[in-house]
Specification:
The chain is 54% helix and 4% strand. The chain is mainly alpha-helical. The strands form 2 sheets. A two-stranded antiparallel ribbon has the order 1-2. Strands 3-4 form a two-stranded antiparallel sheet. A hairpin with an 8-residue loop joins strand 3 and strand 4. The radius of gyration is 28 Å and the shape is globular. The two termini are 53 Å apart. It holds the Pfam family ERO1. One of its GO terms (biological process) is protein folding in endoplasmic reticulum. It is found in: Endoplasmic reticulum membrane. GO terms for molecular function: FAD binding; protein-disulfide reductase activity; thiol oxidase activity.
């Protein structure tokens, strides 16, 4: 063999040996690509790798992750862009009832983009007007004069000596009674019928980081967490005076623990939205402000890692799963009622698509095997009646606090998610819904126009969108896990 041939063989051997060494390095279980990170580094980066029981519930984190990311999230993504769910009526002009409105956000990304009147389907506007007066309609002169009785059924001649007229004042009082009766089971303040309310296109105003922060935002959350102070003694008030302090949940009753975990879960969910849609850059053009939003893993770590939250961050993330299960259960319980809704916008083809999609989603939700047990709360006899009343008042106060948010876009999504949560709790603890279900009302071929239990369109829109926000948070958690690994 020539010298040139020998050198060629040697080069080939060296190349083969080098390739073999590279392969062995990457395949080595103690080093290279498949190597495990240093344990301390793993703990530091993977604080969001939650596992095990969600506590106070009968399922674990992995079960919810798979169920949500594979079955719920994709369905909600396609459903919530439909006209029925994208237009939400809300009052953003309501004054703060607790402190002077001195913290308005001047940043351009805090503003809500108004939708054109002609873009709102006529069926939504008409239905809103109808729903507003439906409960009190039975007491109006119009209802009395169009009762539909035949002559054979008209007993006026036999009862002619009775004065059956009702004064205008009595009509007004009956309407007030009807509205009061309807609001008795509400867990939040509904303001869509008030002066200043307007329809907002949620697709034009997505929830994301706007730059609203600082003392004003902290005051909002501090006030919300203080609502968890049951009993009013100083020691309890101090414990809940700050949402970042450690809370030993084992030392409080189940109802109070659930209240805290629901609020903490909502807070965690909103923080995840802000981290996943973070303002990464912006243009300086005042006439055409544009921003680039995307995930910010460092901000996520700052808000949730044990090092920056005194060890609380993973607990806050676990509470996200708790509130998810609460709202999931509410949708399952209300499924027979929600299937009877027409989801009317006046766009026939889309309305039919929405009804089919709702039925499919509810069937998937009902198939979940480990639902939250709402009967575990308020089960201590007479004492639970007052506890439930306190619950309602505190959640109503939280919905009032949302009127104090200085950023209009943050206020929009805060009000929507609070109303969605309040609607979920209304469903779970409504005696009227229990009575209607037990009586087989939803199985009847025809239901009266004003049944014993019903939800308004804003409540239904808020319920599904709020659950969509929680579903999105759990989905984004998986994305952050990939980055932090």
């Amino acid at each position: 063999m020539s010298a040139r041939g020998t050198r060629k063989v040697q080069r080939n051997l060296w190349a083969s040996l080098l390739a073999l060494l590279v392969i062995l390095y990457w395949a080595d279980p103690t080093g290279g690509y498949f190597a495990a990170l240093d344990e301390t580094e793993t703990n530091k980066n993977c604080f969001c790798e939650l596992e095990g029981s969600i506590n106070d519930c009968s399922c674990d984190v992995d079960t919810v992750d798979h169920f949500n990311n594979m079955k719920i999230f994709p369905r909600l993504q396609s459903l919530l862009v439909k006209n029925f769910f994208r237009f939400y009526k809300v009052n953003l002009r309501q004054e703060c009832p607790f402190w002077p409105d001195d913290s308005r956000c001047a940043m351009r990304f805090c503003q809500v983009e108004n939708c054109e009147e002609q873009s709102i389907p006529q069926g939504i506007k008409d239905k809103g007007d109808h729903k507003e007066r439906a409960a009190a309609f039975k007491y109006t002169r119009e209802a009395q004069s169009t009762s539909g009785c035949s002559d054979a059924e008209d007993f006026d001649s036999a009862l002619g000596f009775l004065d059956t007229s009702i004064s205008d004042q009595a009509h007004r009082e009956f309407e007030l009674w009807a509205k009061h009766d309807e609001a008795e089971e509400d867990f939040c303040i509904v303001d869509d019928h008030e002066e200043g309310s307007q329809y907002v296109d949620l697709l034009l105003n997505p929830e994301r980081y706007t730059g609203y922060r600082g003392e004003s935002a902290h005051r909002i959350w501090k006030s919300i967490y203080l609502e968890n102070c049951f009993g009013g003694n100083n020691e309890t008030a101090n414990k809940f005076s700050s949402y970042v302090q450690h809370l030993d949940l084992r030392n409080v009753c189940l109802e109070q623990r659930a209240f805290y975990r629901i609020i903490s879960g909502l807070h965690s969910s909103i923080n995840i939205h802000l981290c996943s849609k973070y303002l990464l850059s912006e243009t300086k053009d005042f006439l055409d402000p544009q921003g680039v939003w995307g995930p910010n893993a460092q901000e996520f770590k700052r808000r949730f890692s044990p090092e920056t939250t005194a060890g609380e961050g993973p607990h806050w993330l676990r509470n996200l799963y708790f509130i998810y299960l609460v709202e999931l259960r509410a949708l399952a319980k209300a499924a027979p009622y929600l299937r009877r809704e027409d989801y009317y916008t006046g766009i026939a083809e889309e309305d039919e698509e929405v009804k089919l999609a709702i039925n499919d989603l509810l069937s998937v939700i009902e198939s979940f095997q480990s639902h939250f047990d709402e009967n575990a709360l308020f089960s201590s006899g007479i004492a639970s009646i007052k506890f439930k009343s306190d619950y309602k008042e505190k959640f109503r106060n939280i919905s009032r606090i949302m009127s104090c948010v200085g950023c209009d876009k943050c206020k929009l999504w805060g009000k929507l998610q609070t109303q969605g949560l309040g609607t979920a709790l209304k469903i779970l603890y409504s005696e009227k819904l229990n009575l209607a279900t037990e009586s087989g009302l939803w199985d009847k071929p025809h239901i009266e126009a004003d049944p014993i239990f019903r939800l308004s369109r804003p409540e239904i829109v808020a319920l599904f969108n709020a659950f969509g926000r929680l579903s999105n948070s759990i989905y984004e958690m998986e994305n952050f896990r990939r980055v932090l690994r």
